[in-house]
Amino acid sequence: MAAKQRIGLILLLGCLSALGPFSIDMYLPGFVDIAENLRTSEATVALSLSSFFIGISAGQLLYGPLLDKFGRKKPLYIGLVLYIAASFGCLAVTDVNQLIVLRFVQAIGSCATAVASIAMVRDLFTLEESPKVFASLMLVIAVSPMLAPTAGGYLIAAFGWRYVFVFLGLMATVILVATAIKLPESYQPDPSYSLKPKPILTSFAQVLREPQFYTYALISAFVFSGLFAYVSSSPVLFMKVYHLSKTDYGWVFAGLSVVFIGASQVNSLILRWIGSRQIITYALVAQCVFSLLFLAFAWNGLINFGSTLVFIGLFLCCLGLINPNAAALSMAPFSKNAGSASALMGAFQMALGAGASVLVSLFSEDSLLPMPVVMAVASSVALLALLVGSQLIRRDIIGVSGSTFVGH
């Protein structure tokens, strides 16, 4: 594959992957305005974010089998059209319940892009290239938290929160056109793949029997739940507790995203010297330490705006090192069932993310504590999963050949 073609392909796959994060981040500065306009509370508005996470989690299980039966592009078209319709539907909402439902539908559409992009990395690149490609994808994905809340803050300040969904609908339209023209079909449809419940469940069961998959998919899911706790609580935390403006909040969110981006790119360099397993181990131990310190400071009232930024930044730095390696290790054993594996991995992430976002929304709106609690629990459980899962992987003879390439 030529270098120019490779870069273009990674960029387009990154745009597909970034649609979901853009949908999450861009309307965050509008939480207060949405609550006022729809006559509800910010905590209730946050449920529209939770419904988005739930939609992505459920939808990924739907698209996984579709991607394995019909190839990658046809399900992509369906998801993008559904997303566009739901985005423009958000313009007409008159109460928060309508917004919550439409955000769920929007998520069902957007998760097609997330599942397909991960599966296509497995289709189009060698197993040795996958961690670096995932890190490159993360560079494109991570630009969205830099651009989305900042652009959203200015857009909301100038035109109102509903225009965020106009932008998202137009963005998805451009991606749909680019997908149709530039993205190759990377997987031939499999007519023998059945969409009946029993074969689908059998395919998922085959994936779940692979210790390497469920170990690293669970690690990724748990550390991501800490990220979603931060995303869900950050609008209230920064704009109501620390009294930032919409635009200032966007810049703070963007600045923290730079840390995430930097770590994911440093990961590509570190892979020259040590393997994915070692990177995950070191980063996860560090993340546990940082999140527990964050919790201890918050619990004892020793936290302020500056130290909050430091602890969140450290957590995101570790996440940037963990995630691309966990994704590569999770997907490594699969070729035929890559779509189902990608769907399950994404479903784990979004299900735990939805739980984390609902959990933090249940607490007092002027409390910082729920965020470090979720971060500390998530990283600690992920470390436990690594310790237990590593033993299971060593004993699994079948998985050895599929796991050694990145585990040196």
Automatic annotation (TrEMBL):
Q: Which UniProt keywords apply?
A: Cell membrane, Membrane, Transmembrane, Transmembrane helix, Transport
Q: Name one GO cellular component term.
A: plasma membrane
Entry annotated with the keyword Cytoplasm = no
Cellular localization per UniProt: Cell membrane
Q: Which InterPro entries match?
A: Efflux_drug-R_Bcr/CmlA, MFS, MFS_dom, MFS_trans_sf
Where is the chain membrane-spanning? 7-24, 44-63, 75-94, 100-121, 133-157, 163-181, 213-231, 251-272, 279-299, 305-322, 343-363, 369-388
Predominant place of localization: membrane
Q: Which family does it belong to?
A: Belongs to the major facilitator superfamily. Bcr/CmlA family.
Return the protein name: MFS transporter, DHA1 family, bicyclomycin/chloramphenicol resistance protein
